[in-house]
Write a structure and sequence with these properties.
Layout lengths: L1 E4 L5 E4 L4 E6 L3 E5 L4 E4 L3 H26 L2
Antiparallel strand pairs: 1-2, 3-4, 4-5
Length: 71
């Protein structure tokens, strides 16, 4: 999950795997698979960076677990 900021500066977590698309209106509108949406302060580039960083962390943890379990 990635941390984003609503227009009122409230922080929240979103499951990035459920994002269907990101629109620029000029804020970023994140449309989810169930067609709910969130208006956030982050730019699409920032959102994509957060998703990449999260995925990299998950892969690093998976590698560490895989390496430690090989005996």
């Amino acid at each position: 999950m990635i941390k984003l900021t609503k227009r009122n500066h409230e922080k929240f977590l979103v499951n990035h795997a459920q994002i269907e698309c990101i629109e620029v209106i000029p804020e970023s509108k994140i449309v989810m698979m169930n067609h709910d949406y969130y208006i956030v302060r982050e730019t699409p580039e920032e959102i994509l960076r957060k998703i990449r960083e999260y995925n990299a962390k998950v892969q690093d943890v998976h590698r560490m677990i895989t390496i430690e379990d090989r005996r």
